[in-house]
Amino acid sequence: MYLVNRIEETTVKYHDARQVIGRFIMNEQGNLHNYTIDEIADKTYTSKATVTRYAKLLGYSGWREFIREYMLEINYLESHKGVVDVNQPFKAGDSDEVISDQLQALINECVADTREHLDYGLLRMAVRYLEGADRIVIFGMSPNLYLGELFARKLQTIGKTAMVVNPSEFGITSYTMSKNDCAVIISYSGSYSSHSSCVVVPRLREQNVPIIGITGGGDSYLRQNTPCILHISSRERLYSKIANFATEESINYLLNLLFSCLFERAYDRNFAFKVDGAKLLEQDRTAVLDEMKEI
Predict the structure, then answer these.
(1) Per-residue pLDDT at 197 exceeds 50
(2) Number of other CB atoms surrounding residue 22 within 10 Å
(3) How many structural domains comprise the chain?
């Protein structure tokens, strides 16, 4: 999870000075380096010690280390900023045509950003995990689990045993897995908590289960504990956004890429299996358009 997301999280999680300081940082984002710690304390009606404790809350030794890392991140995010605001791609009063154009641009930008962050060595590692797995188990919280269901269905069409786990069954399902299986964990934040798909990581590691992590940028528990990570385009805020447009498109692109690369590894066999299965399961479907009719 990027530092900016962690700061936003403090503005929701806490209702004290930490919330006030977090909001100040978010509001002054690009100008924060112009303030001294004393000025920030004055502006937030707190104290220098409280501001320092806020930096330590986020894992830094003090304000100086925090502001250095924060500004590096802000500069990086600004340099990779797209034309479309991923949090508010359209405004009140925009026409349907404008909304259509904005969403198309957003989709193109977030897919391009996801591809730019691809590590092809890690992609190939992930495909090997899928290829060798007797069972592929997908862990994710809503709404990510819905994208996982589409992925599982695609895998099933080429004969792979795949399932999406209901969060209430994370514990028992992870307990049944072995080194012959593969876990796919989808988590935007990658943080560890009882309400996160990352809660299964310790058990999976203990049982030597290969793990593919799909998560956002920045440091996180999932990144620290999973060697095979695929990077979600993660310029969205955690809360203040219209919808998860960019995150969903990025995750869906990565899952489709995993499926396609796996499909290619045994292309002829997979294509034949897919076609035979479709003929068997969709006998009653008919095409109206000539272009869609099977020859």
Answers:
(1) yes
(2) 23
(3) 2
- Which whole-number Å values give the CA distances from 183 to 56, 96, 178, 202, 233, in the listed order? 33, 41, 10, 12, 21
What is the domain-level CATH number for residue 44? 1.10.10.10
Whether residue 213 is contained in a domain is answered as yes
Residue 50 lies in a domain: yes
Q: Look at residue 82 in the predicted model and tell me its pLDDT.
A: 74
Q: Let me know how long the chain is.
A: 295
Looking at the domain assignment, is residue 103 inside a domain?
Answer: no
224/237 Cα distance (integer angstroms): 22
Residue 85 lies in a domain: no
Angle at alpha carbon of residue 3, lines to 197 and 77, rounded to 5°: 110
Residues 149 and 56 grouped into a single domain: no
Q: Can you say whether residue 159 is alpha, beta or left, with left for phi > 0 and alpha for psi between -120 and 50 degrees?
A: left
Q: Take residue 129 and report the two structure tokens written for it.
A: 């995990």
Q: Is the pLDDT of residue 292 over 60?
A: no
Residue 207 has a pLDDT of 97
What range does the domain containing 57 cover? 3-79
38 and 120 part of one domain:
no
Give the pLDDT confidence of 23-38 residue by residue, as tens digits.
999 999 888 989 999 9
122 and 65 inside one domain: no
Mean pLDDT in the chain? Answer: 91
Give the span between the Cα atoms of 86 and 5, in whole angstroms: 14
219-236 pLDDT, tens digit per residue, is: 889 999 999 999 998 777
Q: Are residues 36 and 153 in the same domain?
A: no
Cα 211 to Cα 225: distance, rounded to the nearest angstrom = 10
The amino acid that residue 223 corresponds to is R
Strands 229-231 and 211-215: parallel
